[in-house]
Amino acid sequence: MAVLVTGGAGFIGSAFVHAWCSRTDEPIVTLDLLTYAGNLDNLSTLPADAKHRFVHGDIRDGGLVRALLEEHRPRALVHFAAETHVDRSIKSADAFVSTNVAGTAALLEACSEHLATSGRNARTGFRFLHVSTDEVFGSLGPQEAAFHRASPYRPNSPYAASKAAADHLVRAWHVTHGLATLTTHCSNNYGPRQFPEKLIPLCIARAIAGETIPVYGDGLQVRDWLHVEDHCAALRAVLERGTPGATYLIGGHGECRNLDLVHALCTALDEARPDGAPHARLIRFVEDRPGHDRRYAIDASSTRDELGWSPRHALLDGLRATVRWYLDHPNWIERIRSGAYAAWVKEQYGP
Ligand code: NAD
Ligand code: DAU
């Protein structure tokens, strides 16, 4: 058997592929379009004997997806591919609707068609794991209980709305077509190989370069941070032991205000790189993000109780290790920031 992963050259998808290849010989196939956020450097350190295949392509290409399903007959599809940055979705939502909504619909359609024509049982022979986000639940007040399974959908950004639409499509395919779907809602991830537009790698990359660190608004927004390896462990548990049709919330009890997080990163940088200290001198308050969600928090108790999963990384230790990773991989950052990586992709795969 094999598993098919979409978006496996991105931040979380590549962490999932790495963890998969270090644990099992079961083949894993990555389908990724290599948008600005996809990065083959993220997969370049897989062990030489890893049973991994990379396919350059678009989840919206139903013919390609059906061909991959027919060729590999995977037991599962893990769907990471998406446009993921809230600020970009505010500037223009087109790519978000196209990839996150139409792309997810195209994948679901291709899976149902493949299962119908290949005689495989949609309920028992195949699993579709949809990686969604906590942002579909909107924003919490300071004293409100954390998001839980029954939280209502209240997406506030175009990104969150596009993920919510995808979630509804996944649910519909389960109810109408009997597809064995699983949906996860995870909080903010951090760790190695995250594109340096997201808060943590952006702060680290800019601070290393001696550039200012932009904090939106008053910096008192709260996010619930989870190490990407803990997220991937939860996804493996959901894939193997989750109940079809169910949703799973994934979070690390890592609630932290943005300003505190940025200061923690600066302290970690001061320790690892004393010549640039104090890095906190680079912090600047800048204009807030429109529609900025104030607080996210996750109640992951049902995921823990049902699947026996719990996070292993404590936030401060995880942040220190993450700072270390970016300091140890200057070329990874430099290739992105200089545009050299994008130029290489264009040369290999066309515009
Ligand atoms: P990312 O932006 O780092 O990577 C996205 C990947 O999808 C890239 O490799 C990109 O090339 C690929 N892709 C985009 N459009 C595609 C298309 N049309 N066809 C094929 N591939 C395409 O994203 P990430 O942060 O790794 O997030 C992965 C998933 O997890 C997303 O669905 C996101 O909504 C969800 N999620 C992310 C977080 C987080 O904190 N980053 C938290 C919860 C959920
Ligand atoms: O909660 C899960 C979501 O987390 C994922 O679904 C998204 O794909 C992922 O991008 C992330 O969304 P956020 O908007 O929370 O992440 P981001 O890193 O963009 O911002 C984190 C917080 O930091 C947020 O409150 C905005 C703030 N911020 C962000 C940037 C880029 C700043 O203050 N300054 C910045 O420069």
SSE topology sketch:
Layout: E1 3-6, H1 11-23, E2 28-32, E3 52-56, H2 62-72, E4 76-79, H3 86-91, H4 94-118, E5 127-133, H5 158-177, E6 181-186, E7 189-190, H6 199-208, E8 213-216, E9 222-224, E10 226-227, H7 228-241, E11 247-250, E12 255-257, H8 258-272, E13 283-286, H9 301-307, H10 315-328, H11 330-337, H12 340-349
Parallel strand pairs: 1-2, 1-4, 2-3, 4-5, 5-6, 6-11, 7-10, 8-13
Antiparallel strand pairs: 9-12
The protein binds nicotinamide-adenine-dinucleotide and 2'deoxy-thymidine-5'-diphospho-alpha-D-glucose (DAU).
2'deoxy-thymidine-5'-diphospho-alpha-D-glucose binds next to helix 6 and strand 8.
List keywords for this structure.
binds 2'deoxy-thymidine-5'-diphospho-alpha-D-glucose, 7-stranded parallel β-sheet, two-stranded parallel sheet, globular, Rossmann fold, alpha/beta, 351 residues, 13 strands
